[in-house]
């Protein structure tokens, strides 16, 4: 069975999807019936997608090319409107993360899913990891700590009009270290904490440069049952920490699928990732194949992301802690790698461990609404 597939948002991260489309097309699994972008998109040697029609308006693509499956890879604040059009056209959807901007938008999309009977898979590709499945099966006890320390130059924030912003032309947009680059870490930790229903969010958000949102974020979620997830991530570190999720004595390096379970001396690679588009196609053919990242599984992620971006603006990290990055194009925060590791492993926020420049955390109860991702998953 060949599926008719289209991509809306073919530039930027859309190249990643074009490569998948080229591969699946070469295998004869899909027919690529259209690409859409507001801007011209250069064919890439890895994914020329020769002869595929190009559209500048997604409604024209839906009407003319009549895809059965559509990938949306446009900026997050544009997702809902395009997604509703896709579902209304009768197509199934692979929607990039973060799927929507708020719980209200999540509800609108969930209603459209129910009304149309179509499928929505969300672009959290790390959920297809065999290492994550093994960690969940082992179910180690203990609090969850997430740490990551990356470097993004200042020019990273010039790549798109919404990068580093809270609003564009008066409309809210969604960006920030934990809601965007480290979104996979947050989503993985919510899935690991099976059935986690956050009751309280405590947040310290900081910026090392002149942006409106945070590039260094410390978050502690306390569940209704007292379980805790603490996340500490930065985009302003000279020392690279790829991204670790600790669960008691277990550690998953989530970008590389390296796992160390309690009692094991060293981390080992657990190969195997199921692709989200392939999984969606398999599910269309056989509903017995579960979707890896159905919309409902992301409800808690969206509630937390919404609460993060609604929090007061980030505090500036003092200039005297900033050092020029050796490659130029921006600064790093001295010692930030040690701080994120300490916060993740102790579950204590910078303000609670005597960090001189730390601000008091923003505390907000998270309302319970609808079903949790874990309940939805077991339906
Ligand atoms: N899953 C991942 O690991 C991952 C990684 C990076 C980005 N993303 C997500 O992918 C999405 C796109 O991110 P990006 O950095 O490429 O953003 P971007 O701002 O570069 O936009 C991507 C493309 O969408 C096009 N576009 C914008 N509005 C459009 C519209 N209405 N119709 C058609 N095309 C439109 C832009 O011209 C651009 O070419 C975001 O949701 C982002 O969070 C996911």
Automatic annotation (TrEMBL):
- What Pfam family does this protein match (any one)? GFO_IDH_MocA
**What region holds the Gfo/Idh/MocA-like oxidoreductase N-terminal domain?**
4-124
* InterPro entries per the UniProt record, alphabetical: Gfo/Idh/MocA-like_OxRdtase_N, Gfo/Idh/MocA_oxidrdct_glycsds, NAD(P)-bd_dom_sf
Q: Quick check: keyword Zinc-finger in the entry?
A: no
Q: Which UniProt keyword terms apply here?
A: Oxidoreductase
Gene Ontology MF, one: oxidoreductase activity
The reply to whether Transmembrane figures as a keyword in the UniProt entry is no
What is the protein name for this chain? Gfo/Idh/MocA family oxidoreductase
Q: Which organism does this sequence originate in? A: Actinoplanes aureus
């Amino acid at each position: 069975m060949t599926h008719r597939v289209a991509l809306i948002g073919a530039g930027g991260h859309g190249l990643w999807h074009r490569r998948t489309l080229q591969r699946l097309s070469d295998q004869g699994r899909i027919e690529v019936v259209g690409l859409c972008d507001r801007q011209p998109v250069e064919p890439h040697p890895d994914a020329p997608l020769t002869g595929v029609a190009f559209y500048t308006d997604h409604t024209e693509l839906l009407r003319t090319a009549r895809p059965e499956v559509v990938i949306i890879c446009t900026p997050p604040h544009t997702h809902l409107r395009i997604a509703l059009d896709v579902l209304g056209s009768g197509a199934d959807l692979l929607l990039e993360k973060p799927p929507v901007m708020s719980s209200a938008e999540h509800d609108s999309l969930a209603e459209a899913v129910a009304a149309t009977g179509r499928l929505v898979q969300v672009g959290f590709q790390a959920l297809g990891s065999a290492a994550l499945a093994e960690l969940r099966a082992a179910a180690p006890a203990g609090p969850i700590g997430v740490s990551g320390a990356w470097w993004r130059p200042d020019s990273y924030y010039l790549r798109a009009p919404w990068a580093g912003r809270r609003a564009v032309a008066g409309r809210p947009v969604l960006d920030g270290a934990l809601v965007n680059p480290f979104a996979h870490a947050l989503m993985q930790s919510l899935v690991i904490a099976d059935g986690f229903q956050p009751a309280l969010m405590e947040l310290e958000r900081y910026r090392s440069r002149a942006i409106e949102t945070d590039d260094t974020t410390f978050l502690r979620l306390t569940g209704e049952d007292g379980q805790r997830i603490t996340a500490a991530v930065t985009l302003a570190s000279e020392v690279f920490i790829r991204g670790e999720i600790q669960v008691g004595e277990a550690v998953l390096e989530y970008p590389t699928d390296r796992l160390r379970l309690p009692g094991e001396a060293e981390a080992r690679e657990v190969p195997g990732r199921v692709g989200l588009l392939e999984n969606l196609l398999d599910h269309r053919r056989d509903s017995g194949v579960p979707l890896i990242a159905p919309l409902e599984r992301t409800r808690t992620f969206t509630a937390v992301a919404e609460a993060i971006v609604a929090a007061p603006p980030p505090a500036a990290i003092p200039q005297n802690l900033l050092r020029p990055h050796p490659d130029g194009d921006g600064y790093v925060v001295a010692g930030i790698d040690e701080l994120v590791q300490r916060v993740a492993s102790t579950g204590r926020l910078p303000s609670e461990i005597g960090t001189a420049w730390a601000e008091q955390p923003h505390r907000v109860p998270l309302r319970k609404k609808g079903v949790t991702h874990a309940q939805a998953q077991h339906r």
